[in-house]
Design goal:
This is Roadblock/LAMTOR2 domain-containing protein. The protein is an alpha+beta fold. Helix content is 46%, strand content 25%. Strands 2-1-5-4-3 form a 5-stranded antiparallel beta sheet, with helices on both faces. The two termini are 14 Å apart.
Length: 142
Amino acid sequence: MATKRMTSSFSDQVMSLVKHLRTDAPDCVASGVVDMSTGMLLSYETVENHPPEVLDLLAGATLDLFQGRTVVMIEDVFKERRGITSDNHFFQEILVNSENLTHLFVRLTEQQDVVAVVVCRKSVNVGMLFAQVRRVVREYSL
């Protein structure tokens, strides 16, 4: 299966990642992939219909969470104090609980500007959510 992923297009890999996140993450109601370099939601699957403007806002919100002005300033201060010259980002995973849902945002290891997003029912076992999403994301080195 890994060979197929290596020979398929980036778009096919993204769609496959979204599908696997949607089916493998416990209590998952939606999954998607955001390209933070373009600010675009590349692909998504959901059990409900959502207005397009909400989906567009998801990409922007993801960008703000991981690379908002203040977040970048914090990273820059720590990099400077630690003598780090890497372009890698410190924030790799962010968990957000809303009133009814749990949202997990995971930055891909190989492509730091790509973030997988998984939305689950609030009753989800958070440990299992992290374990499953990390496993699926690790399989896809986009």
